[in-house]
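To the team - adenosine-5'-triphosphate complex, inputs and output below.
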Amino acid sequence: MTQRRLFGDELGKRLDEVLFASHSHRSATRIAEGLEALSRDRQERVLHWANVAAGTYAEIGYQIATLAPQAFALLDDAGFDAWALASLDAFDRQGGRAAMDLLRDIEGFRGARGGALAVAKFSDIEARLSRFIQGLSGRPLSLSADPEAGAAAWTDSETIHLPARLASLPRTEANRGLYKVLAVILWAQTRYGTFGSALVDLQAALAPWLETVDHARALRWLSVLEAVRLEAKIAVDLPGLAAEIATLRGPWPTVLTPMVARLSRPDATLADTLAVLSDCMAGGEDAPLLPHQVKIDPAAALRVRAARVARDKQILSRAINALKGSSGRPGPRDESMAPLAAEGGAVDFNLSDEALALPPEARAAAQSLLQDLGEVPPECLVPAGPGAWQPTERTDGGEGLADQREPDRRYDEWDYRRKAYRKDWCHLFESDVAPGDADYVAEVKRRHAGLIRQIRRRFEMLRGEDRMLGRQAEGEELDLDAAVDAIADSNSGMESSERLFRRRIRNERSLAAMFMVDMSGSTKGWVNDAERESLVMLCEALESLGDAYAIYGFSGWTRTRSDIYRIKRFDEAYDSTVQARIAAVAAKDYTRIGVATRHLTELLLRQPARHRLLVTLSDGRPDDYGDEYRGHYGIEDTRRALQEARQRGVRSYCITIDRQGADYLAHMYGAAHYTVLHDVKKLPLKIADIYRRLVS
Amino acid sequence: MKIETLAPQLATIAEEPYYQAIGDETALFEAAYARRLPLLLKGPTGCGKTRFVEYMAWRLKRPLVTVACHDDLTTADLVGRYLIVGNQTTWVDGPLTAAVRAGAICYLDEIVEARKDTIVVIHPLADARRMLAVDKRGEMVMAPDSFMLVVSYNPGYQSVLKEIKPSTRQRFVAVDFDYPEAAVEAGIVATEGKVDIDTARRLVKLGELTRNLKGAGLDEGASTRLLVHAAQLIGAGITPHAACTAAVARALSDDPDMNGTLDDLVRAVF
Ligand SMILES: Nc1ncnc2c1ncn2[C@@H]1O[C@H](COP(=O)(O)OP(=O)(O)OP(=O)(O)O)[C@@H](O)[C@H]1O
Ligand SMILES: [Mg+2]
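Output:
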């Protein structure tokens, strides 16, 4: 659909909205004239970027619009985007001067971009692609970039490795498409059994060529043949996607014709591929190279898979044993269980014809086993009898650097193995964050001026939700109900009330929000930057909303040294001291998150509000020095702490930045709602919206 | 003085609404009805709760009174109020009172949206007393055996301000609703959307893909309702791509990045 161009006066009006809200002395007419000759698409592009840039710094927006006609003379659309974006990058890193210089030197920019026009970068597609892959399948797969030139695309069955840059096709768009196709093929390898199942052992099948000169050739053939088979599989449920792959690869090379005939069937399995593979290896030829060639590394994938299968089996057996234990049924023999694999990979279990409600974690494990092995191993389903399975009891290690000071508080910690609390286990120390750069907040506010304006407006609307109070002695309008009652009363001879009016009053929100910010070492870098910026956005939002709020950071170094850092107490104003503390939020040690949750819940409970909300901002798994808190223990303790909070009337919401996939999150956050952000950089943009949804 | 009473006439549902049973919900509803227990339907948006109640009302041959709750809903809006007609004071029953008097099924949709002080009027109605206090008239309306109270609520909402109080929720028999399994949902989409079963299957596949993104950028995946909408557009001659973009992708998210991913998913299926 092509739309007509905008005329000068229309352009002028829109530019005014974008650029000159606060600079009325300037006029957009001249710029508008320059843009009139551009196509509508390009006009919209210019308006878009001018708007984006103006949100950061009005002058850049102005320059982009002014220079756009010249820029389009030298750059294509993608080039124009890159040029505008580069100026914003320059501003962030080096300030306004550098941005202006970059914008003016269009020629130079084009030169520097040079042959790079067709390159697609992993970082540009990562967020969208990782969401897409997550959409395709339940089991989380993470994406990772390999910066080496000419790096292969491959997967170890948990991470999809892709080259950091792709330039093998002539256009950027096509290379982006190639990223998607590569990722999909690798996803399909994990989804449709390229690494074997309970019935087919890939390692054994490849053994004849292992450590021979033919090993690499066998793997190349395997990759190509699997590409044929998997495409047919994909076509069953995702025909559009299969068509996209087919378009990108073009016709199969003619040498593949007989193989395609054998493998391009939706019911073909790895066993079929292996049969064809032996035939190919019997001939001396090498496999053809495909445009969407991926590498298969069976050793790496099988290693990762073995670890995962062992873990999943353990989770599942434990869950089933726990269910058995609680069902109090007699002897194990009559309790064989049949897994029912429904379509779409959902798994249900029957125990003597009774549906079993597996906890989500175990359900996910069963699903994952089904995907890896094509079945749920029978040994998981046979009850082990009492005491056969015991959690591995670790020694009570992890005694860290005992602090000389007396802790401010001690808290219990939940030990899931004992199913009991460890009394006064964690020593908590509370201190202020030492103030940092006094100008930091002002700088963030300048950089995000547009966004902050928007946030403030939205939040003021929230606060503006008023309520009508009826039957008032005075007010702005008549209360019909009251009036009718009054007439009825007087008709029946009773004395009638004089409270006949409605009055508008501000709704009392009565909400106290506590923000708990991860200051563990793993947040160093991007995450920490994003956290600090997000705090600024939050403060802006909450100031316009008027909710009571506090901000604390947490970090820790073993149970005897859990730190809580005060950034803003409930009774402190959002003043320069608080702002300087926000600037100084830094990455410290580890993530012992349970004790922090308990302490801040405690503080929150002292607030006289009707609703209490605890919002956690963290970057993933609980973790602490000495290995004990890492893994299951920490997850269970965190889960428990959130449940305790919930029971005491504190609602919690967790915002997690976890790029590693989020298999454990649903379990850990059990009692809380949560959201996962894959792209840290988005946090500052999203945080206010997340909060708004929570409280409206 | 005599006060006139206006009671709205309630009609039963004449034609059988299309409802595809998912589990044992029909039997549960009938049992609750027989034992005069109120029912709470929990489930994500657009999964068939309203349709189910319509269907049950038809099946039990009771009139159905539906009230969509919102935060300005007052007790008077539910119970009734006086009006002046001519020079006469007239009492008009609210939907709840009307339903109680007529022995109808009263369905309060999205009960969490209602204000807490409004909700309490249903408390005596939702326990063994089964009566409604019409304070303004000093009247107690006893519910006949055929009266049934049904409320719905979407537990997926994240707002801390919107939760059912335990004293309310513990009066109800609760039934969980969710999107049905793929084959069943495809049947619903095909029937409701008037499309062929292959198209319906693809739409359901799309729904499944978006539901995988719940919590990872989407608050909720596509509901059965959205899939039906997309099917209806396709039936009206819109291309599947355009129909899914409009009825599913754009309906789920405003975020440009998320929209990009949703477009990819639409293109993967069609
Ligand atoms: N089991 C079903 N049988 C028939 N139609 C269904 C079924 N489930 C969903 N639908 C279709 O989905 C649409 C949405 O269902 P409905 O309006 O009952 O949702 P709801 O659960 O009440 O949603 P909300 O919570 O948003 O009110 C219906 O109009 C119908 O087309
Ligand atoms: Mg409804």
